[in-house]
Write a structure and sequence with these properties.
single chain; globular
């Protein structure tokens, strides 16, 4: 009997030890990946505008207040820049943001330095990069969102619909911030209806949405609005639901590249 009791005690001790060694996931209201386009079509000024725009939005009273409205009052953020299918640059790894001081620290890291552009545009590539980043990140979010900004359609890597389907299967929301400005290089790659491309081909999730940016002066306000909506899990008042049977050509970016260059892969 004594041997049995010692065995039970040993098993219990090992179980407690195992639990102590297992990292505990921190509960948060939202796990949010900010995925920012830095393809070669963007000018250095545009790249800086994006970093500063996100920093300014994070420091706004609206965003800080919205972070505190959730049941946990805290979120987890990651900031990554992207271009081609294998061109993702992690700027800030998963970071918990709870207070204004946390937001200030995150913003300061964003604007500490500015990096160069990368080649091509692969929205599918950044989705493929982002999905596994939710696994084992140390946080347990009530929601998981990939927030993609970009100035053109997918033109390299696998079709964007295939990548989006993988996000759908995981219950991950994708929101879009199409940059419909005309400052950068390569006007032949631009889509006049880039906002529609994002609506039909990129975003997914019951509360997903698109906020287009027509001029760079509107960028900080658009980012602020987008972050607040993501934090409170709402859509813009003027949101128009997408009926996917409408038949938008989600390979338009690849076809444009093929027209001017050749084999897009």
């Amino acid at each position: 009997m004594r041997a049995v009791l010692l065995s039970i005690a040993l098993i219990a001790e090992l179980a407690v030890s195992a639990r102590a060694e297992t990292p505990r996931e921190v509960p948060v209201d939202l796990e949010l990946i900010l995925a920012i386009d830095v393809s070669r079509s963007m000018t250095p000024r545009e790249l800086e505008i994006q970093r500063r725009g996100y920093a300014e939005a994070l420091l706004s009273a609206d965003v800080v207040q919205a972070i505190g409205l959730g049941p946990h009052g805290q979120i987890a953020l990651m900031y990554v820049e992207w271009a081609g299918p294998y061109s993702q640059r992690l700027i800030i790894d998963w970071t918990m943001v709870r207070t204004r001081a946390d937001a200030e620290a995150f913003a300061a890291r964003l604007t500490a330095e500015f990096t160069d552009a990368l080649r091509r545009t692969s929205i599918s590539g950044v989705i493929d990069y982002a999905i596994p980043r939710f696994d084992g990140n140390g946080f347990a979010g009530l929601r998981q969102v990939i927030d993609i900004s970009g100035d053109g359609p997918n033109n390299q890597g696998r079709p964007v619909l295939a990548a989006r389907a993988d996000a759908e299967a995981r219950g991950i929301t994708i929101n879009g911030l199409p940059l419909m400005t005309r400052e950068g290089m390569g006007a032949q790659w631009h889509l006049d209806d880039l906002d529609q491309y994002y609506r039909h081909c990129v975003i997914t999730g019951q509360t997903s949405f698109v906020i287009p940016v027509l001029e760079w002066k509107d960028f900080p306000a658009a980012v602020r609005q987008k972050l607040v909506l993501e934090l409170v899990d709402r859509q813009p008042p003027d949101h128009v639901p997408v009926r996917r049977a409408e038949g938008y050509d989600c390979l338009i970016g690849e076809k444009i590249w093929d027209q001017f260059i050749g084999d897009w892969n």
